[in-house]
Amino acid sequence: MNRYPLWKYVVIAVALLVGLIYTLPNLFPEAPAVQVSSSKPGVRIDSALMQQVEAALKEAGIAYRGDALDPTGIKVRLADPDTQIKAKDVLQAKLGENYIVALNLLSSSPPWLTAIGALPMYLGLDLRGGVHFLLQVDMKAALDKAADRYTTDIRSLLREKKVQYAGAVREGPNVVARFRDAAERTRARNEIGIAFTDLALREYEGPGGELRLGATLKPEAQKKIQDGAVMQNIQILRNRVNELGVAEPIIQQQGADRVVVQLPGVQDTARAKDILGRTASLEIRMVNEEPGATEAALAGQVPFGSDLFTERGGQPVLVKRQVVLTGDRINDAQPGFDQRNNEPAVHVNLDGTGARLFKEITRENVGKRMAIVLVEKGKAEVVTAPVIREEIGGGRVQISGRMTTREANDVALLMRAGALAAPMEIVEERTVGPSLGKENIDKGFNSVAYGFVVLAIFMCAYYLLMGVISTIALTANLLMLVALLSMLQATLTLPGIAAIALTLGMAIDANVLINERIREELRWGATPHAALQAGYDRAWGTILDSNVTTLIAGIALLIFGSGPVRGFAVVHCLGIMTSMFSAVVVSRGIVNLVYGSRKKLDAISVGQVWKPAVAAVPTK
Amino acid sequence: MEFFRISRDIPFMRYALTFNVISAVTFVLAVAFLALRGLNLGVDFRGGTVIEVTYAQAVDFNRLRGALDKLDLGEYSAQSFGTSNTALIRLPLKEGVSSAQLSERVLTALKADDASARQQRVEFVGPQVGRELFENGALALLLVALGIVGYLAMRFEWRFAVSAIIANLHDVIIILGFFALFQWEFSLPVLAAVLAVLGYSVNESVVIADRIRENFRKMRKASVTHVIDNAITSTISRTMITHGSTLLMVLSILFFGGETLHYFALALTIGICFGIYSSVLVMAPLVMWMGVSREDLVKPEKKREGDGEKVMP
């Protein structure tokens, strides 16, 4: 009685040992580090680069505390934050554009722990500081954009096939073509149907019996465009984040049309927001140079198929609505200077298709003006509207005109980072400064520590040896919970730390139940061994029931919660599991170890067992 | 040490009606506060922007408001947060202005006014996300309630399930009532606390229900009232001590966890205090009124671990 077979002790010992090992990394402080990773596919991170990094640091006289190469990049440990920033600047200057040099924090735990995958807990943004954004992709705009493309394509198709039509325009997400004669319409319908299988076509009559052909994207094509838009936006956000130099960014799709961006440890949150929040896309359009058109537009009568924009510097420009080239075609853009007049400029490099298109446009429009339009949050601005002097081949374009150096930098960055497939809007933002994160860790730690100490003192005083055993079990619970969180790399948030405290408070419930039950059994006159046995066995059913109900609440939170609350739910659920194990198995193991071997047991140290004069013993 | 030395069963059920009247009154009051004042929904649910700013010295709110008034922000509020050096500014949603621009503008204005101003935290929730968070919260609450009823009905009997959930939802309403009365901010962590309380105080009901069932088996001749009284009396020591322990940890969060966790801990504190009362003195009478009987619980030997009959040596 009250003895465990050897294997059970082994299970407990192994669980505690694993718990201890995986908790260890959390005890080592984090050291400042610099992380070098590649910003482009194809740029290799290898030992040659590592030697380069080491040489660069030596040259600059920066002492470092060791470096390591792993699949995510090269990590160099440094003594303090000041040298960290210095090292970052040195490396960025030395390595150039192809590499991202980011500030990071690395655990200073010994390498053997890292080798077996024992990492410190993954801290959420509210604990380490950083930026969290939830961005919503404007799907309507993505569809409108697609319809714009189809409008252009349909026009050129009809022209190419020599179909007589009276115009094609976009109306919302649809393309509407007008005809004078039904036969031509049928012909157009056939041609479009063959060329663009993604379009659903419909013949109808507009006002005044006008013959029309409506083209709408089929639902599956719409879905494809929307998915594509989200994917493209994620890719672009990645590029932009790379420009920022963040060590462990998270960029993920959430739901059908949302993207989560988390930038841990970002110090300059304003800049991060600026770069990410800019939803700029670039369009090249022709300027409407019909005589009198600009004057008419200024008078309030914007000609059909044109938009009135303002150029940098304030002059109005009338721009044709048709987009001849979009920012998707840009390979690279660098700030620089115009060789002729030394004004700040942006040098743009187009991809193959872009270069071909640009060559065609410039050949056909020599002497005319083209407008480079930056669309930001539905607001368009003409960066510059230069006159095309000659055919420009080779895809090398220089954009200049009334820009400051800083503006040239920004425009280049935006162009380089690519155009968004559809505008995005920040629908949720949570930014936490690094010092607040540190403060949150301290406060969370304190609330767990103080509560735990008082609880331990109370348990030991009230239940004596059994209380000590309960406290040991509770410590084991804490150990296993932290180990489990470290192992799973689940995100720990401030509510998560609160959940650790709460879990400890609730976990003691099981031990109280058991200890009270043992006292009760003793009160009713059971022998010590029988009391121990009954105490644990009878309490088990109750412990199970009460934990299941708590678990139901935890799981509901896990499903419906978001952000910090999810962190609470994760810890809560894991804590329930570990507390059941520790309160029942671990504490029973210790009890068996202490009392089980004694054949004759006179008393259990469970505190005073008070026996009433008139015992309220249940009638058996 | 033994705090609870009770020699006779306390006749709780004799006062069942009184308890029920007390809970009915608190419940009605809580509902009244909720209906009249409503919850002070935080930025999580209502949408809007919260900016936490620290200064090198105590915040001069007149100056701060003076700086903000120029910005045309709508109905904003500014108050100190935790320490006197920290200000919490709440801004309402504004059509066509993104959070990024808004918080930047506010910070620039504050920095221009006092260079030591430093942004600690920005939270922005758009109207749609706020609505979703609210809906998800309500769904979570519903799911927890149904899950618990289902589990208890399966494990015990429907009367226990129904009484337990009434007792515990009554806790939830009372917590919400407090938040409505004092206009404390109801945020996502507070919702998490409410749900945790719901799961937690059901524990208590489970323990008592367990004991009632056990007593029905053992105390063959006792009346239903006596059985319930005995169950409550014999578990009261455990009830007080476990709730005391949990409360200890929660108070530790309340005092040391900082301003961010303040209302979270407060909701838990209220929930635990009322949880003791409701599961003992609301649920048990309800079970009794619903006419629970020995036959309902002592089914023809359905085996259950830990019931003692076969375990005892």
Summary keywords:
heterodimer; A: 620 residues; alpha+beta; Multidrug efflux transporter AcrB transmembrane fold; Alpha-Beta Plaits; Ribosomal Protein S8, Chain: A, domain 1; 4 domains; 5-stranded antiparallel beta sheet; 4-stranded antiparallel beta sheet; 16 helices; 50% helix; elongated; disordered C terminus; B: 313 residues; two-stranded parallel ribbon; 10 helices; 6 strands
Account of the 3D structure:
The complex is a heterodimer of chains A (620) and B (313). Chain A has 16 helices and 22 strands. Chain A has 620 residues and is an alpha+beta fold. In chain A, β16 and β17 (344-350) form a beta hairpin. In chain A, α14 (494-523) packs parallel to α16. The longest helix of chain A is centred in the last third of the chain and has 55 residues, at 434-488. The two termini of chain A are 24 Å apart. With 313 residues, chain B is α+β, with helices and mostly antiparallel strands. In chain B, a hairpin with a 1-residue loop joins β3 (77-81) and β4 (83-91). The two termini of chain B are 29 Å apart.
- CATH A-level architecture of the largest domain in chain A: 2-Layer Sandwich
Could you say which overall geometry of chain B the principal axes of the C-alpha atoms support? Answer: elongated
Q: What string, H for helix and E for strand, traces the elements of chain B in order?
A: HEHEHEEHEHHEHHHH
How large is the count of helical segments of chain B?
10
Strand content of chain B: 5-15%
Record field, number of beta strands of chain A? 22
Number-wise, the strands of chain B total 6
- CATH topology value of the largest domain in chain A: Gyrase A, domain 2
Q: Gap between N and C termini of chain A, in Å?
A: 24 Å
What's the helix count of chain A?
Answer: 16
Strands of the largest sheet of chain A, in order across it?
14-15-13-18-19
Give the overall pLDDT of chain A as a whole number. 83
Rg from alpha-carbon coordinates of chain A: 35 Å
Low-confidence residue ranges of chain B: 301-313
CATH class of the largest domain in chain A: Alpha Beta
Helix percentage range of chain A:
40-55%
Main sheet: strand order of chain B: 3-4-2-5
CATH topology assignment of the largest domain in chain B: Multidrug efflux transporter AcrB transmembrane fold
The biggest sheet of chain A, with number of strands, parallel, antiparallel or mixed sense and barrel status, is: 5 strands, antiparallel
User: Alpha-carbon distance between the termini of chain B?
Assistant: 29 Å
Oligomer: heterodimer
